[in-house]
Amino acid sequence: MSTTQHIKKNDIYNAFHEIWETEEPSDGVLHGLCIAIKDNIVTKKGTTTCGSKMLKGYNSPFNATVVDRLENAGAVLVGKTNCDEFAMGSSTEHCAWGPVKNPWDTNRVPGGSSGGSAVAVAANLCDAALGSDTGGSIRQPAALCGVVGYKPTYGNVSRYGLVAFASSLDQIGTFTHSVEDAAKITQCISGYDELDSTSYPETHPDLCENLKNPIKHLRIGVPSQYIGSNNETAVNDAIQDAIDTYKKLGASIVELELPLTDVGISTYYVLAPAEASSNLARYDGIRYGHRTDELCSDLFELYSKSRAEGFGDEVKRRIMLGTYVLSSGYYEAYYNNALKIRRLICEEYKTAFESCDVILGPTTPTVAFPLGSTADPVSMYLNDVYTANTNIAGICGISIPCGFSEEHGSRLPIGLHLQCAWHEDAKLLRIAQMFESATTFHTERPGVIA
Q1: What is the pLDDT of residues 325-372, one digit of tens each?
Q2: Which of 77, 117, 207, 378 is the most buried (most CB within 10 A)?
Q3: Residue 446 to residues 30, 185, 420: CA-CA distances in angstroms?
Q4: So which residues are the catalytic ones?
Q5: Which fold does the domain 3-260+342-443 belong to in CATH?
Q6: What pTM did the predictor assign?
């Protein structure tokens, strides 16, 4: 696809922050594949702003490890995609460069925070894109835009060069049109990186070798908490159809209970803001980041005005929340208790995977919601109810297209969410491939806009 087409469609969807002139790719397994990069992954080419005025015009002196690995594999990097500011949001409306629109219905959100990457792939602006997932920021927009969104096990893909939001939760992953492309690209960017202290040092299994070999005697766990009145009817129907598809493929269904699903969001919104409060303290207008032009009487006033001007409302909200739960007198009640619940969530998953190979459910409880409908932040946060615990536990998860809803006057995609145990990424992709091979949802595209 030409750069001209990129620019033309980008005016409609606002998917890209920057579009680059393409260069002759090197030889490699990804030779000529056009890939976009989320704007919170640093690149020497262009700017990295994290969707924030705080980093407007920032030029990184180095590439993220994943960027170097893509280029070494022959990929063509076409530009940076818009995202919620510092990856904080579930709608990609909280971006300093304006909201991103869903190509299936431009009056609706694409999800977030990696909405620009999801839209760029869904609208055929590129072959694939990288995003980051802290509580569902790859899988949720993938579901709302009808593409494949894959979050590897924490530590399998280097985070070096990913601008930190919540360091114990963040993971780089992919947006693609197929599970096979997700496996191929992730195979190239995964592996140990000495520059990332959280990088998994052991040998990684080949994600492509057995991808198209169905798993025999597959056991699929379906938690009762994942299907119910909290979901839109079309979502429940699509998930039931997906279960029936797997049954026809020879899988057995195991009924599960994951009672900590309901506390995952509250746990996440203690842990993630706490880490964000610490990580974003560096943006003070002194070393780097936006610096106020106003004359200040002291250092505190300089900090205060620079941060007030540079950060958006959602980022400010999470910094204040994180600072509060870490403050004296509240640390034990909030942050320390959230860490205890995190351990219980890990144990709950460990027990669940003793009786099943994969956990199945919807990626989101609803389809894409209208632009401007997230005035109440809690309603936006609840869209990650089925994805946040994946990050809390550090396991792998993938969203694949599984149906459409006609209930809102538009044909809107629905995502199927699959989760596997730690470092069982190859198994997860094989299970996702089984469904994809038996259906055609992943081949459907939004209406072409000339």
Answers
A1: 999 889 999 999 999 999 999 999 999 999 999 999 999 999 999 999
A2: 117
A3: 25, 24, 30
A4: 38, 113, 137
A5: Amidase signature (AS) enzymes (3.90.1300)
A6: 0.96
